[in-house]
Amino acid sequence: MAFLIALILIVLVQWFHLRLLRLELPERFHRWLPWVLSLVHVPLIAFALMRAAGMNSHGALPLLRSLARLAFYFQAFTVLHLVFGMVAEGAWRLGSSHRRSGPEPEEETPEDAGRRAFLRTAAVASTGAAAALGVGGSRQAYGDPLITRLTLSFPDLPPGLEGLRLAHLSDLHSGPLVGPGTLRRWRELTEREKPELLLFTGDLVDSRPDELPPLLEAFAGFLPPLGRYAVLGNHDYFDDPRPIWGELEAAGIRCLENASALIPRRGDTLALMGLQDPMATNGRFRRMVFGPGPRPALAARDLPSGAFRICMNHRPSEWEQALAAGARLTLSGHTHGGQINPIPGFSSARLIGPRTEGLFREGADLLYVSRGLGVVGLPMRIGAPPEIAILTLKRG
User: Fold this and answer.
1) Within a domain: residue 103?
2) 152 and 68, same structural domain?
3) What does the alpha-carbon distance between residue 71 and residue 67 come to, in Å, rounded to a whole number?
4) pTM of the model
């Protein structure tokens, strides 16, 4: 059903795009436009069909993924072009002092010619705007992330956990849009902060288990004294996650999926929990279910009742599940802070939920939502710079 809806949207967008292009381009190009637009989207549709059927598209046709990504970029440009075209059309109608009445003339009128020229100018402007957004968005996405340093106070924090400094990394999306050099830079910046604990809160890869090794290589040898832990995100379940689980454990990164770990520090104990992402139950791509989804009781089953609890939980929408497990501090990502926010001061992530980025409070319990580091879909960020969160616990 999701694929059918996406296909209908693609067809509708391209139908409107075709109409706009016919206004902007000379008539001699018109007969080729439907064929060109169709050919551009064949790889995208074929790749989506293979993924929906659970077929190993990346192994059989390595070129298909790249062509599908280019088609997706074209789709994004199409939407921007249509927005500019609609704005230009509205501006032309408002500014025009003439209105046609009666039958449509057989030949192009001066008003038609002016309208066509105006829309062509808007098309050039939309291309320029797309280029400017692409350059600016790419600079923000691949520049050094912002390092958010926060001190979080809890009145009941055990004395032995006072001053505990942890690094919270989320949504790295190792894969075609995030390469080894970028991953190494993130490791360097995180290691400079000298955290005692390194936590990954999901979406380690873009969509495939074989995208994980560059991330593991980048963080190899970075061994905080209290360890490294992770949970998987929805993108980590786009394919069979079992190789990811195995490779994380082999690299010394403990994966907590509805599980917990007791971490001693200065005579007290931190209880670290992880909840499994709901995507584990989806079975969308390989028709397989890899877990029950978030289970707070299972995650907290073996923990001492008085232990101070931190929960790694990829989606902030599942905060209530973490609270049910007794989490005093919950760490999430998933939203990318909207990633592309064309309206200043408004996060696009608010369309899917109110917890988009930053710190949230429920009584004495806290949730921190990271904007994450990587990108998905488009290789850019606008109004949502990547983030490394360094959080220090304080009693008080």
Assistant:
1) no
2) no
3) 6
4) 0.82
| Distance of alpha carbon 33 from alpha carbon 343, whole angstroms | 32
Provide the domain limits for residue 360. Answer: 146-395
Question: Which tens digit of pLDDT belongs to each residue from 324-361?
Answer: 999 999 999 999 999 988 888 888 888 888 999 999 99
pLDDT of residue 252: 97
* 81 plus 155 within the same structural domain: no
In this structure, is residue 104 part of a structural domain? no
- Cα–Cα nearest to 146, from 199, 173, 179, 186: 186
120 and 244 housed in the same domain:
no
Please list, in sequence order, all residues whose beta carbon lies within 8 angstroms of the beta carbon of residue 374, skipping any fewer than 6 positions away.
Answer: 171, 172, 173, 174, 177, 178, 203, 206, 386
DSSP string, 50-83: HHHTT--HHHH-HHHHHHHHHHHHHHHHHHHHHH
Task: State the total domains in the chain.
Answer: 2
Contact 394, 194 (CB under 8 A): no
Question: Are 127 and 153 contained in the same domain?
Answer: no
Q: Mind listing the pLDDT tens digit for each residue in 207-265?
A: 899 999 999 999 999 999 999 999 999 999 988 999 999 999 999 999 999 999 999 99
CATH number at residue 316: 3.60.21.10
Max mean pLDDT among 9-13, 99-103, 120-124, 210-214 falls in 210-214
